[in-house]
């Protein structure tokens, strides 16, 4: 160590003094008045505690020894940032004097014990081990690590896995196309989660559990997808909890994607602190979640908040659920794509400033673009879709009477003004003051999946 310090020029630095030997009486004075001791000496875990001086113990040499609360361990001692962080935390603190290794009265106790022994009697050697106390020292890795969740979002197109912190920050995200078969899908989920868990260690994130958001009807108590939408094939009666828990050795939560969006709003979004609110998700399909008295409503058969299948017309278009006239049949991304294809087939979609490549699939994006560029037929379709969604919101207001309705998803901003107009025209006066807003969360499905883990963990800690 002396050679290394000399190479660094420490002997010529005004803030350092290199000393090969310090007499014991001077050493004790230095220890008593130091802002911090750093190193791996046994003195740091024994004598220094008697003065309450902060200690940063580097490396693994002293592992297993009982230490006082003045000791902060930095086991990965060659990581410079951790040592620096430890110095910021420890330097200049004053801890209570520790008496773990004695209070200065050892000699009188030993004499008292020896006097109590009858030396005339033959003595049998006995072993007596004192009870092991819980170690009250700290570890820099535990202080700096981020409590996090693994969040999984199973969509119709993509499969996403993310490391999400307690504050709702997406630390890292992984995206793959969602396979078409059960075997490929479950294997890919396991593979992505294992990779994310390994990466979390490098990022100093402590994974508390796994939360999964998926389309379809879910039994969250058992962690089973009962049956799914047509967008996710081979996804009925699927036990997601068991294989993930067995592989990762972590607790696993599973819920419907609409419910997860509501949970995300409750923990990180505009529903935070509200007792009653409803979230409507607008994307490839239409879904939702209901928070009542701060709790998520699942229903007796886990079918609550299937808000996309509220019927708003007796003779409306066919819906993917097998019925017709549902909100989803009008306002979902699939419904808008269907109408866009009809217009395109009749050469009524494209206007000046628009083009569709030969191999490009016509989608809802093209319909919205056409409406923005003045295509009256596209505008009429969007207005009808927004009106259907608005009627659904009116039914929700009349049935549940929430204090807030949150529109979430990629289509929310295109519908918000139409929905508010429908409420003004169709809703009872007593619910017209209920606010309807667009979510400001970027990834509600992932954040909602993470919140299932983080909320449970927070309750356990508190």
Automatic annotation (TrEMBL):
The gene is GNE. The keyword Kinase applies. This is Bifunctional UDP-N-acetylglucosamine 2-epimerase/N-acetylmannosamine kinase. Keywords: Kinase, Transferase. InterPro entries: ATPase_NBD, ROK, UDP_GlcNAc_Epimerase_2_dom. It comes from the Eukaryota. Residues 8-115 form the UDP-N-acetylglucosamine 2-epimerase domain. It comes from Leptonychotes weddellii (Weddell seal). GO terms for molecular function: N-acylmannosamine kinase activity; UDP-N-acetylglucosamine 2-epimerase activity. The lineage of its organism: Eukaryota, Metazoa, Chordata, Craniata, Vertebrata. Gene3D superfamilies: 3.30.420.40, Glycogen Phosphorylase B (3.40.50.2000). It holds the Pfam family ROK.
């Amino acid at each position: 160590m002396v050679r290394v310090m000399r190479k660094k020029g420490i002997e010529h630095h005004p803030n350092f003094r290199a000393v090969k030997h310090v007499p014991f009486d001077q050493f004790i004075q230095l220890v008593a008045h130091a802002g911090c001791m750093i190193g791996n000496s046994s003195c740091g875990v024994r004598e220094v505690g008697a003065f309450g001086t902060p200690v940063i113990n580097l490396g693994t040499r002293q592992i297993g020894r009982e230490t006082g609360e003045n000791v902060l361990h930095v086991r990965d001692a060659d990581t410079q940032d951790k040592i620096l962080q430890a110095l910021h935390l420890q330097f200049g603190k004053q801890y209570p004097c520790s008496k773990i290794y004695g209070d200065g009265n050892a000699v009188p106790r030993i004499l008292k014990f020896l006097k109590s022994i009858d030396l005339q009697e033959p003595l049998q050697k006995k072993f007596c081990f004192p009870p092991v106390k819980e170690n009250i020292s700290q570890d820099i890795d535990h202080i700096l690590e981020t409590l996090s969740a693994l969040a999984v979002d199973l969509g119709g197109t993509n499969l996403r896995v993310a490391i999400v912190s307690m504050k709702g920050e997406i630390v890292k995200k992984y995206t793959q196309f969602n396979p078409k078969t059960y075997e490929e899908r479950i294997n890919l989920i396991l593979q992505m989660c294992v990779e994310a868990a390994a990466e979390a260690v490098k990022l100093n994130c402590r994974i508390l559990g796994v939360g999964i958001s998926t389309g379809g009807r879910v039994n969250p108590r058992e962690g089973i997808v009962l049956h799914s939408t047509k967008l996710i094939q081979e996804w009925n009666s699927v036990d997601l909890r068991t294989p993930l828990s067995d592989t990762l050795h972590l607790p696993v939560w599973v819920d419907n994607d609409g419910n997860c969006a509501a949970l995300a709003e409750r923990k990180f979004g505009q529903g935070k602190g509200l007792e009653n609110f409803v979230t409507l998700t607008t994307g490839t399909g239409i879904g939702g979640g209901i928070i009542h008295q701060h709790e998520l409503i699942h229903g007796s058969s886990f079918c609550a908040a299937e808000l996309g299948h509220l019927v708003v017309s007796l003779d409306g278009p066919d819906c993917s659920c097998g019925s017709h006239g549902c909100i989803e049949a009008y306002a979902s991304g699939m419904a808008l794509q269907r109408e866009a294809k009809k217009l395109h087939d009749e050469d009524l979609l494209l206007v000046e400033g628009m083009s569709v490549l030969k191999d490009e699939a016509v989608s809802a994006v093209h319909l919205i673009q056409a409406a923005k560029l003045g295509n009256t037929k596209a505008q009429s379709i969007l207005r009808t879709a927004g009106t259907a969604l608005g009627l659904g919101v009116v039914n929700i207001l009349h049935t549940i009477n929430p204090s807030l309705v949150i529109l979430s998803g990629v289509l929310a901003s295109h519908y918000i003004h139409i929905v508010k107009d429908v409420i003004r025209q169709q809703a009872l006066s007593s619910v017209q003051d209920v606010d309807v807003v667009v979510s400001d969360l970027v990834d509600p499905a992932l954040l909602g999946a993470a919140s299932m883990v983080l909320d449970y963990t927070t309750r356990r800690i508190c």
